[in-house]
Amino acid sequence: MSQITEMITTLQTAPYSEKKQFLEYLCRMAEADKRQISHEDRNAIIEMVFAEVEQMRRDIPDTATYREKDLIFECTNSLFGILWFLNGPPANLPEAQQMKIKALASLIKQERHIETTLDEIFQQPSVTETDINRLLYWMKGCTDEYQKGKLFLGLGHQELSRLSEGARQILKEYMAAELRRLMAVDTEDAWNALEVLADVSRYFADEAIVYGLLELLGQGRNHISCYVMDTLCFLGEDVPQSTIDSLAADLEYAHFAYQTLQLVGKTSLFPAAYAAPEYLAKSALVHWLTYPTELGKIPDEIAMLGKIKFLFKKEPYYIFKFRSDSDTLDDENKNKWLIGWSTVKGDSFSHFHPLAAFEGATLEETLKRIKKTIK
Q1: Checking phi first, is residue 104 left (phi over 0); if not, alpha (psi -120 to 50) or beta?
Q2: Which side of the chain, N or C, has fewer Cβ within a 10 Å radius?
Q3: What SS3 state is found at 338?
Q4: For the segment 48-62, what is each residue's pLDDT rounded down to a tens digit?
Q5: Termini Cα distance of the chain
Q6: Cα separation of 319 and 233, whole Å?
Q7: What b/e readout covers 257-289, taking b as 16+ CB neighbours within 10 angstroms?
Q8: pTM for this prediction
């Protein structure tokens, strides 16, 4: 039994959170070079895909929360990607398999009511008051805060110039009201919705929304405050110095805050104590590591090893070692020193290679070995 066949067997009883990681891995493998997958494994993968398609069709209607459904939707994206990379366009599939794919896609379209409606109305040359009222009428009956937050995320991906003035005004009033309502809800889903709302509200700003954003800063949640600060700067509004100080002292958001101020020529407001290049580079790497595709969290420890320069690159690279118990790491790399790098501008990356593989007799020798891995 091959490794892939063993993984497929394990997948059958795994929760969707684990299925997501495995399917993303298979999708990347198929995209990179499907020739590395044997004929037997290819057939096993395609059989697995259609078994999962049928399972998802059964699971989606009975899944309790939209957050859980959204996880299944993400899994289907990888399933469809695997099929494409291994088998080409859907037309290459037998008709019976095409029908199964279409049935799942149709079910997802119905379940993703907000996203589907947004896509439909923004395909029109002009989005009217009637269109937005139809969408918001459904929103008012929705009690799932995670799903309701999809409106703000979806708006950020639409051509907002298609909104009529009346439609835009309706959205402004709705978003100003949601700013205050969500602050009172005080749940993880509500705060996540506020994070996206703080970002997209720059395109709907009026006095009520600006006041709401300033009130939101008072909640002291830096993962939201950084987007509020970015929006306020975009609008030419002043940002309280207390907010700037708080973000500067937060290693996860300091680099984001500095760059935001840099874009509007106000870096003089950034506390000098946190403006050192190595600190900003460390912040940029930490922020990158928190992405779900990387560690998904702040490293437990991080320390600078040194910096290196390239002949044809102006910015030096700051080299760091970090360790974490993140579930995204292989067991052999958990809680081990790994290496990563970044520039002050935020050119951050890590292959999650162990420091031990590069250590030389001196730090200078170690840095030279690491330099060879940076492209």
Answers
A1: alpha
A2: C
A3: strand
A4: 999 999 999 999 999
A5: 38
A6: 31
A7: bbbbbeeeeeeeebeeebeeeebbbbbbbbbbb
A8: 0.86
